[in-house]
Amino acid sequence: MAKKKSEPAPTTAQALDAISFADALAVGPGFRLDELDPRATPAFPGAKTDGQAALAAGVDEISQLQERLYAQARAGASTQRLLLVVQGMDTSGKGGIMRHVVGLMDPQGVQITAFKAPTAQEKEHPFLWRIRRALPTPGYIGVFDRSQYEDVLIVRVRNLVPASTWSRRYNQINAFEKSAAKEGITTVKVMLHISKEEQCARLLERLDRPDKYWKYNPGDIDERARWEDYQVAYQAALEKTSTEIAPWYVVPADRKWYARLAVQRLVLEHLRVMNPQWPPADFDVETEKARLANS
Amino acid sequence: MAKKKSEPAPTTAQALDAISFADALAVGPGFRLDELDPRATPAFPGAKTDGQAALAAGVDEISQLQERLYAQARAGASTQRLLLVVQGMDTSGKGGIMRHVVGLMDPQGVQITAFKAPTAQEKEHPFLWRIRRALPTPGYIGVFDRSQYEDVLIVRVRNLVPASTWSRRYNQINAFEKSAAKEGITTVKVMLHISKEEQCARLLERLDRPDKYWKYNPGDIDERARWEDYQVAYQAALEKTSTEIAPWYVVPADRKWYARLAVQRLVLEHLRVMNPQWPPADFDVETEKARLANS
């Protein structure tokens, strides 16, 4: 087993066959976003309180796997790391995933990057430049709040570059993710799927509560007006970039409690497949015990 | 009130007079590290289970204050931010503070930096260069796992630079922290104070448990051999750099549960003094409701 640790574990849809959330939510051939009910709760038959209890129950196992992942990298025994990519329309619950799912992990081992509209400096580089710089280092769980996929979503919907440019990006992203996998990165791509009606309710809440005003932006309504175009752009991205090495998972997100549980379980199931191990001592334990006793 | 928000709230020992942990743990004139019992639990009369319950009970208030801090900065209404500096001997529990105290905050609003021995690039710059680059941006809670104080602790004990150099650094640090305060940074400096006996027990645990080997380094025993020198260096740092604007707090840390509670409360008490506010809407709420209704 020790010999295997330096090679990244395979993380394909096949390897996860036995696992319920990954199995239930993976985007396979013929997937249609418009056929998935945003209020569904695939792989979880329970109610809200059951889901909340399950979320809490998952914390310890993730915590231990995360510490092993970190430890083996610190010891130079592995380059494994995990990247969680979170995409979704405005109000789909990306912030809640950060707070209530990523927030349950050890912050010392987490690297969150929130991608906004590219800066002037970022615009001088190819679109994957800022993404590459934000990839997690060995041992870490990287989390992208938005990602390279904005470059085939808002960029496509808003015609921010010519079609000939964005249409090439799907293959560029696939090549990029393949190369990341070779470096030891297990990528878990999640789309939080909400309904247009639920978005309306969530935007209204932001307008009704003074403690939520800061989350509201008038531009949100402009994007909402292009809802159908976004669904088409998401469908294209899901079809073209759900690969063996980096499959997409579409998580119904009208029920926040379900979305949070599902994302946690997707991370957990992938960490199990990665199967990080405590590194062996790189010192002689008895010698060190004797030194300590004499100190 | 809106006018005041752009000015950082004062965070001095005086402003915190009414507050128990800050009051009980602040380093004032005549403070002697060797007179503080590392097993004491100042400002908290309860037992371990009470302390753990109190830690859990503090989460919601910190969470709300943290969100306000973040929100007001996002809205451009304030430059306030908090910097938690954590220092202590090996095994004093710095990692546990990150995991069990910082880990209870929203990770979207936290920036952790773990300072190791300076890299070649860092060595080409003045010692505060890498510190300045890691200061939290407005709205964030920055956390330093080790800090600029290593440059008057291990550097002094190990004679890594001439005495004429390190002896100037206390004033340089004070000037640096004063300037940080002017930019809106409230600095909370914590020393985790353990006994030499407790360190022995914790190192032994790392040598007894294969899941802890990765935390052990034979160099830890070399540093332990200089225990008294480190205590002298800490005493000097505490005396020379506990200022009105950035006081030190020494937290007895032989009991992990107490140290975690105390650090959480120190952060909480400072956030209360900072008193961040939800920013007002920068759009017309009724107009936006109408736009949403028509969307």
Write the layout of secondary structure elements.
Two copies of one chain form a homodimer.
Chain A: H1 20-25, H2 48-57, H3 59-74, E1 81-88, H4 94-100, E2 110-114, H5 120-123, H6 129-133, E3 141-145, H7 154-157, H8 163-182, E4 185-193, H9 196-208, H10 219-224, H11 227-241, E5 248-252, H12 256-274, H13 285-293
Parallel strand pairs in A: 1-3, 1-4, 2-3, 4-5
Please characterize this protein's 3D structure.
Chains A, B: Residues 61-277 form the Polyphosphate kinase-2-related domain. Chains A, B: This is Polyphosphate kinase-2-related domain-containing protein. Chains A, B: GO terms for molecular function: phosphotransferase activity, phosphate group as acceptor. The structure is a homodimer of 295-residue chains. The longest helix of chain A is centred in the middle third of the chain and has 20 residues, at 163-182. Chain A has helices at residues 20-25, 48-57, 59-74, 94-100, 120-123, 129-133, 154-157, 163-182, 196-208, 219-224, 227-241, 256-274, 285-293, and strands at 81-88, 110-114, 141-145, 185-193, 248-252. Helix content of chain A is 45%, strand content 11%. The first copy, chain A, is α/β, with parallel strands linked by helices and 295 residues long. Chain A is globular. The interface between A and B is large, with 42 and 42 residues.
Shape of chain A: globular
Number of domains of chain A: 1
Mean pLDDT of chain A: 93
Largest interface: A-B, 42 and 42 residues
CATH topology of chain A: Rossmann fold
The CATH architecture of chain A comes to 3-Layer(aba) Sandwich
Radius of gyration of chain A: 20 Å
